[in-house]
Amino acid sequence: MDAEFDARLGACAEAVERTLDALLGPEPLAGEIARPERLVAAMRYATLGGGKRLRPFLLVESARLFDVEGEGPLRAGAALEMAHCYSLAHDDLPAMDDDDLRRGRPTLHKAQDEATAILAGDALLTYAFDVLADERTHPDPAVRIALTLGLARAGGLGGMAGGQMLDLQAEGRYGAAEALGEGDVRRLQAMKTGALLAYAVEAGAILGGADSDDRAALSAYGRALGAAFQVADDILDVESSADALGKATGKDAGRGKATLVGALGLAEAKAERDRLALAAELALAGFGPEADVLRAAARFSVERRS
């Protein structure tokens, strides 16, 4: 299964890369006036040529469970990846996490400038909704609305953006640093990181026309995988190197970031990471071998080294 998982992950990453490359071309679409060259270049820098593309992979494989493949899932996956990459470009800014390195190369605001990085992030997020709303993603307007609403909820006030605010508050950006308990850390991480990962599988279920039971199972899988992924990230920040991760390490503790490593200790955090990965796999018990790739994705999320 590991060999098949690696092959499917790689093939999906290549397909998503081609889709993003085409979407982020220089020619304006109908209704656009022009695409400024500097902004297009910044969006391409932030999006192309890096990353595991795990989020679009989860979306594509979840849709595949229901025999839905091709352009629609790839476009939805590309939209999700644009939303993810927007968040990275903004998180790296000096006003946020102030990082100089991302995926082994200078962060966007270092390669360009802060204003360009802000605008590139703004444009990527907006374009993500453009792609989801386009009938090329799915002919049924109700499906497109569901995809768009899901991404808005996962990425916005009660999801990723809200989680980032909770993270900044916990660091002490707006007064005394907040000592968060385990439950608060879990909520923060479910919003900041887990929401987009959970949306990935939910979007695949939407595209696949899944019934309520299958959607509930995939939602449980996505939430557990998202939580496991973030705990694994917290552990990598402690144990890995900048060369392995392609970004600075050891910054969470230095900034007083709220992590489960801090709340539980390293050994207990590792146990929780593994428990969550198993919970993700068990959530797929109602599916047969067609879901083995998604089961492998849960293991990959906690066994990865970057």
List its traits.
15 helices; two-stranded antiparallel ribbon; Farnesyl Diphosphate Synthase
Task: Give the CA-CA distance, first to last residue.
Answer: 20 Å
The total count of strands amounts to 2
| Helix count, DSSP H or I runs of 4 or more residues | 15
**Shape assignment:** globular
Give a quick rundown of the structure.
The chain has 306 residues and is mainly α. The chain has helices spanning 2-23, 37-47, 54-64, 71-91, 108-111, 114-133, 141-155, 160-171, 182-208, 212-239, 242-245, 251-255, 260-264, 266-283, 292-303; strands spanning 101-102, 105-106. Its cofactor is Mg(2+).
Describe the protein.
- It is a single chain.
- The chain has a single domain (2-303), classed as Farnesyl Diphosphate Synthase, CATH 1.10.600.
- It has a two-stranded antiparallel ribbon.
- α3 packs antiparallel against α4 (71-91) and α10 (212-239) packs parallel to α15 (292-303).
- It is mainly α.
- It has helices at 2-23, 37-47, 54-64, 71-91, 108-111, 114-133, 141-155, 160-171, 182-208, 212-239, 242-245, 251-255, 260-264, 266-283, 292-303; strands at residues 101-102, 105-106.
- The chain starts with a helix and ends with a helix.
- The mean pLDDT is 94.
- It contains 15 helices and two strands.
Layout of strands and helices, then pairs:
Blueprint lengths: L1 H22 L13 H11 L6 H11 L6 H21 L9 E2 L2 E2 L1 H4 L2 H20 L7 H15 L4 H12 L10 H27 L3 H28 L2 H4 L5 H5 L4 H5 L1 H18 L8 H12 L3
Antiparallel strand pairs: 1-2
Helix pairs in contact: 1-3, 1-4, 2-6, 3-4, 3-9, 4-6, 4-9, 7-9, 8-9, 9-10, 10-14, 10-15, 14-15
